[in-house]
């Protein structure tokens, strides 16, 4: 396990925790580099149905730890590693949920935006801060932010590097739900457990389609999967007989 990242699995939910308390859970170069390899076995594990990304303690992630860099080449390499980690998280084939407390800034916001959904505790703060450092925010990360918040809010965050509170983040679409700090963990656990009961066929196809990159052959692929899967009939039968469905499709 790489320093600064931990994984726990319970009842179909894998929880990846960013744990670098000395730097307010900032992502070090080693943590960025390790994240894709950490996600790969979770993606392949059929027992894992949902991924939750969170931070240790009362902070999600204060950004990228750039304290060790003294030249432009090192900064570029760190940014490339951050983008690779972000893309690996965005490509994770199962539902992903960021559980956010406290600061979710810079690289932390980059990771949260790569998740499918973001649930936050009241008092959480969000920011995209490359303008403080004179860094060009990656094109793929910018497009993802625009898809979530719209161009005006994305420009506000990128131009100013100001932090926004949970209320504005919720209005902007950067956050999906806001809970009292003491209730967030319970809501995340309950929601993850709910997702684990739903059809993987539906979820995987939805991730493919909502990514905005599904080619026509992917539409044909998912049509064929639906035709061959017992899930649609199982879902309809369970609904009509008022019982819980037992979905069996798996990738």
Topology, pairings included?
Blueprint: E1 5-10, E2 13-18, H1 29-44, E3 50-55, H2 72-90, E4 96-100, E5 103-105, H3 107-114, E6 117-121, E7 125-127, H4 139-149, H5 151-160, E8 164-165, H6 166-172, E9 177-179, H7 181-197, H8 200-210, H9 216-228, H10 231-241
Parallel strand pairs: 2-3, 3-4, 4-6, 5-7, 6-9
Antiparallel strand pairs: 1-2, 7-8
Helix pairs in contact: 1-2, 2-3, 4-5, 8-9
Tell me what the structure shows:
With 251 residues, the protein is of the alpha/beta class. The protein is 49% helix and 16% strand. Helix 1 links the parallel strand 2 (13-18) and strand 3 (50-55). The protein is globular. The two termini are 26 Å apart. The mean pLDDT is 93.
User: How many β strands by DSSP?
Assistant: 9
> Separation of termini?
26 Å
Sheet with the most strands, sense and barrel status: 6 strands, mixed
The proportion of residues in beta strands is 15-25%
**What coarse outline follows from CA principal-axis ratios?**
globular
Q: Which whole number gives the mean pLDDT? A: 93
Give, in spatial order, the strands making up the sheet with the most strands: 1-2-3-4-6-9
Tally the helices: what do you get?
10
Helix content bin: 40-55%
- Decide which structural class fits the backbone: alpha/beta
Low-pLDDT stretches: none
SSE sequence, one letter per element: EEHEHEEHEEHHEHEHHHH
Radius of gyration, taken over Cα atoms and rounded to an integer in Å: 19 Å
């Amino acid at each position: 396990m790489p320093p600064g990242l931990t994984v726990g699995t319970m009842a179909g939910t894998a929880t990846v925790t960013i744990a670098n308390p000395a730097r307010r859970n900032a992502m070090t170069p080693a943590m960025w580099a390790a994240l894709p390899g950490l996600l790969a076995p979770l993606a392949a594990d059929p027992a894992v149905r949902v991924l939750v990304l969170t931070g240790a303690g009362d902070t999600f992630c204060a950004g990228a730890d750039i304290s060790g860099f003294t030249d432009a080449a090192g900064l570029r390499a760190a940014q490339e590693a951050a983008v690779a980690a972000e893309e690996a998280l965005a490509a994770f084939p199962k539902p992903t949920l960021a559980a956010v407390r406290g600061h979710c800034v810079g690289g932390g916001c980059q990771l949260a935006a790569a998740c499918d959904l973001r649930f936050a505790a009241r008092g959480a703060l969000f920011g995209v801060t490359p303008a403080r450092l004179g860094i060009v925010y990656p094109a793929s990360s910018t497009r993802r932010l625009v898809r979530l918040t719209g161009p005006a809010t994305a420009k506000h965050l990128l131009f100013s590097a100001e932090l926004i509170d949970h209320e504005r983040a919720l209005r902007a679409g950067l956050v999906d739900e806001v809970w009292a700090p003491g209730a967030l963990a319970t809501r995340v656990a309950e929601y993850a457990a709910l997702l684990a009961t739903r059809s993987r066929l539906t979820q995987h196809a939805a991730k493919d389609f909502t990514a905005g990159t599904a080619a026509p052959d992917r539409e044909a692929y998912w049509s064929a999967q639906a035709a061959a899967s017992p899930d649609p009939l199982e879902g309809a039968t369970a609904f009509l007989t008022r019982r819980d469905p037992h979905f069996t499709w798996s990738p």
